[in-house]
Amino acid sequence: MRANATRNGSPLLSTLILLLDIAAVWISAFTAARWRFGTEDLDGNYATLVLATSLMVAGCSSAVYKSFRGGSWLAMLGRVKLTWLVSCGLLVAWLFFSKSADAYSRLFIGTWMLLMLISLVLERSLVLLGMRWLSKKGYNTKDVLLVGTGPMSADLKRRAKRSSWSGYQIRRVVNAHSLDLVEKLAADNDFDEVWINLGVNDTALIPKVLHALRYSAADIRVVPDMLTYKIMNHGITFIMGMPMLDISASSLGGTNKLIKRIEDYLLASLILILISPVLLGIAIAVKITSPGPVFFRQRRHGWNGEEIKVYKFRSMKVHSEDKNIVTQAQKNDSRFTPIGPFLRRTSLDELPQFINVLQGRMSVVGPRPHAVQHNHHYKELIPRYMLRHKMKPGITGWAQINGLRGETDTLDKMEARVNYDLHYLENWSLYLDLKIVFLTVFKGFINKNAY
């Protein structure tokens, strides 16, 4: 078996990172003190505060720490920001509840917190650069035997080559059917890890491959066939102590669900206050230009496919259709009211849906709700179509700001819209929501396909 100094290096690396985190807290404190007080010396109260905060950072960092190896730089930054936010939140809470905030300079505290975040990001980034340098020198490496040529094999090799700092090097690829060769390589113990990647049709081979690897001391991992299953929200959920691979679980669970709900209430309340004069003006215009109600209520599918009633300003004359048929609006549709085309082109007919948001039926941002009859039609034609309902429908969405508004008169158009919706669900973040809201102002209201 070959010697590898990094086989047991993870605890050492994690300890080093915690020490560097603590050092970053103190260095940022000294820098803030120099800028605020003209000296790096910290008296007893300030030194105690910095010590307590450094311990909180170490504790939070340990709680959210994951090995750098195999992770992404952006994921690392996310954990750094989480550590910083929790630590600063605890610090502010302690100052408030202990009524000791007046004993410290607010300018020092604010400067220190900002410098702390910058220092932690720089420190972690330097660690990644150091790991990349070590990998190029032949240290900090893990040789990998890849068993199987499943759909993910090419992607695994590409990622290992691109993420050179991770140290993972796929040294050999062996067909899973070559069990004798797998057993020989395993017995030689020349690899640090073995990754098993089989296509969905070869999963029955896994027990045989594991038996062939019985003499190996390497870490053995199974790579799920994500491409075949088309997994959304690639995660593992523990239920009754059993790990289960999430195939179509919503990304909006726990804290994310709460953040999204708060975002919806704040944005919908603010927007309704700002547009209230516009709502009143449109309501009057609808009423005086066409007999009938101001609002049009249509049944749509909401969260988890439950039926909801969505509000719109009425843009068509009162008419009746077969209850199982919903005819999409078309250009120069004879059913339009005098101001109907204008309301639909500018999306002003959608504004009452902010009321739906406050009712908890919709979100400001999310997949646009389709008529119930359309859902029943397209769910038979488009794979994963119903996954759109893993999130509340939105007034605007990722598909809409990318030009997919209005009539979907072909299957290709609907498939494109669904693909954008699923991309949004898989990549949801508060930042993405705010980006979509901002872009909607410039790109989401008026579209040549909306009528």
UniProtKB/TrEMBL annotation:
What sequence ranges are listed for the domain Bacterial sugar transferase?
A: 260-443
Write out the GO biological process terms: colanic acid biosynthetic process
Its cellular-component GO annotations read: membrane
Q: How does it sit in the membrane?
A: Multi-pass membrane protein
- What InterPro entries does this protein's entry cite? Bact_transf, EPS_sugar_tfrase, Undecaprenyl-P_gluc_Ptfrase
Region forming the signal peptide = none
Q: Which family does it belong to?
A: Belongs to the bacterial sugar transferase family.
The protein depicted here goes by the name: Colanic acid biosynthesis UDP-glucose lipid carrier transferase
Q: Which gene encodes it?
A: wcaJ_2
